[in-house]
């Protein structure tokens, strides 16, 4: 908030993103309570995510995190960087999301974001930015990846 009470964006505007730009997030270790909270919020109580006995008999040999929890972490880790704070209007879509490796409790995860495309919106003050997200574990393996499309404010549309 400014002295007059108006919100001031600190994220990047459409004009500040370039195709090929890459950004790396900080890291976060996934905990058992994180997985339990996600299960509680979504209602997805599949024993693969919580039951040691069931998970031990699975191909993974231990509990795995929900796939959508990993996707949410990838978005959140990038969001924590402040790159989109106050400049993103909406997420328009998710495409080609893949899960090449499981995410386990105790994994330390970070995210990489690469701008793959951008174009002006049909409405003034807005642009469309496509970004490739990769969720990476402590061993450097990409455990999830895909693209998201954002509607982003232009400087002209910021009211600044």
TrEMBL record:
InterPro entries: HotDog_dom_sf (IPR029069), MaoC-like_dom (IPR002539), MCH/BMMD (IPR052342). Residues 24-130 form the MaoC-like domain. SUPFAM superfamilies: Thioesterase/thiol ester dehydrase-isomerase (SSF54637). Transmembrane segments: none annotated. It holds the Pfam family MaoC_dehydratas. It comes from the Bacteria. Belongs to the enoyl-CoA hydratase/isomerase family. This is MaoC/PaaZ C-terminal domain-containing protein. It comes from Streptomyces hintoniae. The lineage of its organism: Bacteria, Bacillati, Actinomycetota, Actinomycetes, Kitasatosporales.
